[in-house]
Structure prediction request, 194 residues.
Amino acid sequence: MSDSASSPRPETAEDIADVIRSRRSINLFEPQAPGTADLLDAIELARWAPNHGLTEPWRFYLIGERTAAEIVDFAVEFETAAKGEKAGLARRKRLEGIPAFFVATCRKSDKALLQQEDYAACCCAVQNLMLYLWHRGIGVKWTTGAVTREQRFYDVVGIDSEAEMIVGFFWYGRPKVVPVQKRREVAEVVVDTP
Ligand SMILES: Cc1cc2nc3c(=O)[nH]c(=O)nc-3n(C[C@H](O)[C@H](O)[C@H](O)COP(=O)(O)O)c2cc1C
Prediction:
């Protein structure tokens, strides 16, 4: 690594802090789909997440129009079966208002520690991706609803559920509303040890 890559660059530290602090999960989007160019750039950065043993356990599925329509149909069917027709209709309206989707997966392992560390790495990768998109004016919502654990969801997207687990079904687009969030005080989450 070159010296310039490893030495502190204070002029950018606050910019990074601002991106991290201001990023929000977005519920309401502008209708236009943002296209996949920014997402691909974000995936390029996602890959630089720490990952133990360089397992690079992540995969990103860019959801095309036909697959998106199939996902929506399945999610509506799933919601209707669980909560009734009115809830199903509401789910359709909600999902049809989302401009674009992607899915992130983690390779599966039958070794518990490896699985845990691979999943941790995938979450780091997703955060890289979300922060980069946020900086480019694109908001993301990470979802892990029950529907994403259904075999049919895997089938619709074309994921081998023997080999990969879904980390999230992500909604993304230009934010219409940015929610306000808060966090606990630093002192509440810091433990000093002697
Ligand atoms: C692993 C994971 C799963 C999540 N699943 C959902 C979800 O199913 N539905 C949802 O509305 N938000 C989901 N979220 C987003 C959180 O609700 C959100 O991050 C939290 O409210 C804090 O808001 P912020 O991201 O704007 O800081 C998920 C986040 C993570 C990290």
In short: The chain has a mean pLDDT of 96. The first helix runs from residue 3 to 6. Residues 24-25, 142-145, 181 surround flavin mononucleotide (CB under 6 Å). Helices lie at 3-6, 10-22, 37-46, 65-83, 85-96, 112-135, 151-157, 186-189.
